[in-house]
Amino acid sequence: MAENLEIAIGGSPLNILFSGNFAVRLFLVMSGYVLCLGYFKTRDKKRLVTSACKRYIRLLPPILVSNVLICLLMLLGAFRNVAVSELTGSPWLAGFNRCEPNFLDAVLEAVFGCFFVGTNQFNGVLWTIPFLFLGALLVYAVAWLIGDKKWRYVVYVIIGAAVLMTDYAGIFLGFVLCDVIHTQGKFVEWVKKQKVLLWLVFIVGVYLSSYPSAGAHLEGTIYGIIPIVMVVPFHLVGALLLVAAAVCLEPLQKFFGWKGFVKLGDISYSLYLVHFPVIATLGCWLFEMMYGKMSYHLAVVLVFAVTTVVTLGVSVVFKNYIEPLGKKGELYVESKFAKSK
User: Fold this and answer.
1) pLDDT tens digits, residue range 27-74?
2) Residue 210 has what DSSP assignment?
């Protein structure tokens, strides 16, 4: 019964609410969109240089603190994801935090490994950090070199083709979309008038974004009509279409401009870093305690509710007390550039 419900959700557009694969691509596209937003509005290349210099300092503190805390939790035996994977039949869940906990290794992963080689033995989500770091440096460099050239779109196509089969594509395509939206005024104004086309773009975006991550057992679902299976490209294109529709359609802007979504976006980086450790410790422990004592679905709902509240709370703490450490470093870099100027 539990499997049937999960499969039914996974084969419907509701999957967009649960697909971690899509969420990562959306996060990368949105990150690429905002990285050079200030430059395209002001054409100030110094902003690109300072932003590039601040990037590592901006990302590091929450990663370092979360890795140290995760190592401590591992030493205390708090991670229950392996045990719960046996109850749920999820081999994916069992693949995390299998290394020997060591504080030195956790620190090295945080300060170097995750940024340059995607090491993620302690925090599984750190595999995306190279794309958020090196990908950001890529778009800063491209903007600095050719961001004011009329022929830059030709180079964009070449670079896009080169990174298309990697996760650098998400952050780069978000950057290109930002360029178009904020520099091609007449074209964008024309596009914004094509309401039917934009809503069609949104619908197609939802369809591709909710494509089942497993890429299998699609017979009888609305995704079975696609003759080829390309999960990551579908999610990438879906994320790009959703962002494009959102910046061009006023109803979507008002919807996503709701204060709750804005606050969620404000803590999104910390939320991304802490959500899995909370799930693999508290969430899995709760599920173990309730398993067999109530229905599977009720246990899942209760675990989801508790872990959501706790994850949001921990994210707010990180946002208020840990992320500002990076901002202090950013201010130091800015002061150095100001003195140089």
Assistant:
1) 999 999 999 999 999 999 988 998 999 999 999 999 999 999 999 999
2) T
Whole-angstrom Cα distance, residue 308 to residue 278? 9
pTM of the model: 0.90
Q: Give the C-alpha separation, 91 to 93, whole Å.
A: 5
User: Structure tokens of 43?
Assistant: 């054409």
Q: Assess whether pLDDT exceeds 70 at residue 4.
A: no
- If you average pLDDT over residues 218-243, what whole number do you get? 90
- State how far the alpha carbon of 312 is from the alpha carbons of 229, 263, 273, in Å: 34, 11, 11
- Length of the chain (residues): 341
- All residues at 6 or more sequence positions from 247 whose CB lies less than 8 Å from its CB, including other chains: 177, 181, 253
Produce one character per residue of 12-46: b if its CB has 16 or more CB atoms within 10 Å, e if not: eeebbeebebbbbbbbbbbbbbebbeebbeeeeee
Per-position DSSP letters for 275-297, written without gaps between them? HHHHIIIIIHHHHHHHBTTB-HH
Adjacent-strand bridge partners of 320: none
DSSP 95-141: GSS-SPP-HHHHHHIIIIIHHHT---SS-GGGGGHHHHHHHHHHHHH
Reference 279, options 111, 90, 118; nearest CA is 90
**Is residue 34 helix, strand or coil?**
helix
Please give the angle made by the CA atoms of 41, 328 and 49, to the nearest 5 degrees. Answer: 40
User: Which tens digit of pLDDT belongs to each residue from 317-327?
Assistant: 999 999 999 88
Between 325 and 216, where is the model more confident? 325
Say whether 222 sits in a helix, a strand or coil.
coil
